Amino acid sequence: MLFHMRRAAVAQAMGTGVMVLFSAPVAYRNRDVEHEYRQDSDFYYLTGFDEPESAAVLLADEGRGRLVMFVRPRHPERDVWDGRRVGVEGARELHGADEAFPIQELNNRLPELLRGRRRLFHRLGRYRDRDDLILWAIDTVRARGRSPYLWPTEIVDPEPILHEMRWRKDEGEVRAMQRAADVTCEGHLAAMRRARPGGYEYEVDAALREAFRRLGSERCAYPPIVGAGANGTTLHYRANSGPLRDGDLLLVDAGAEVAYYASDVTRTFPINGRFSPDQRAAYEVVLAAQEAAIARCVPGSSIEDVHAAAVELLVVGMVRLGLLRGEPQKLIEEGAYRRYFMHRTSHYLGMDVHDVGAYFIDQKPRLMEPGVVLTVEPGLYISPQDEDAPPGLRGLGIRIEDDVLITPAGPRVLTAEIPRKIEDVEAACR
Length: 430
Ligand code: CA
Known about the structure:
With 430 residues, the protein is an alpha+beta fold. The chain has two domains: 2-165, Creatine Amidinohydrolase, Chain A, domain 1 (3-Layer(aba) Sandwich); 168-429, Creatine Amidinohydrolase (Alpha-Beta Complex). It has helices at residues 2-14, 41-47, 76-82, 87-93, 106-114, 128-142, 159-167, 171-194, 201-214, 277-295, 303-321, 328-334, 422-429; strands spanning 17-22, 28-30, 33-34, 55-61, 64-71, 99-102, 119-121, 154-156, 219-220, 225-228, 249-254, 256-258, 261-262, 265-270, 360-361, 364-365, 373-376, 379-381, 397-399, 402-407, 410-413. Helix 10 runs antiparallel to helix 11. The two termini are 46 Å apart. The model has no long low-confidence stretch (mean pLDDT 96). Bound molecules: calcium ion.
């Protein structure tokens, strides 16, 4: 079983020690209304368990692992209100716990689980109440005076082990990410069909969400950005409330989450279905930069290399469009392009939309390997108030973003089905 194999690999990496992971806390929206619950990615990665108020204790002895889970017990009365819980029995039978207890017993049992183990893997600082519990448990073991037992004297961050594993996606994870990409494709096609002059950004937002949910996505991987005209130049625009005007572009940044894996895609298209000559010229610059950057998504190159490839073509394009003047190489060195392209080209993608994994090792850019998934998302953002920019380009916000898997044979674009070339985008908008 998948989660069992992952735990075995983690136990192997731990050697001898104990790892304590906690479920994501419930967040309240207002008064007694909760935000939609979404399990912590590390916790889910090792347990496949999606309920709140739970903890997983992984005991490793010379590389052999044993899982103790603490979960909300079955409760016939609560089940009527909240639905059926997996319960202590389910934690054992469905989730492969070697032992399982009600979460209420965590405090009493934790010292005993730490006893005799020098290394404790716990992420300090994320949730202070959990830090308190861990420190109390260590102190409780230590306080037993002349006890012949060891207690944890080393607190180790579990993230390097877990995130190193999550950084490289295995075949099953790649399949899940492809499903998320396919659902996202349908959402973007629906957005292109829905947008029309006289409409509103929220109608397009609704079309995206409708497609995602209809195709089985649990939720958006992040709040969609639907920005028309100059709203597309606001990088984290979230209101999605503006009007769709004839002649403007619409920037849509949205991705579905499927089975805990994210997709992250941006398309920019004309609201009336036809790019104007200025829009077309600017779009071609971003598209060429993206294609050059995707070509660098191969084993042995770094995310810095991918970024450099995008920046190079963006700057050449900025000069051609009349946004910048000067020698491209010099403009790159001076960072002059940041006025129109102010973010990075890529981030890792996986269970988290900004996924885990080190970007640098010993302060040097890390080289990518097969199984790594990253976004490639160059953009061009020209403020409507930019009086140095040619008038026809002011207020344009263009980003093209795809999800790319590194394979031994080169880049595989998981989101390749979503129209990207000008004629394909125009056809999808009709
Ligand atoms: Ca994005």
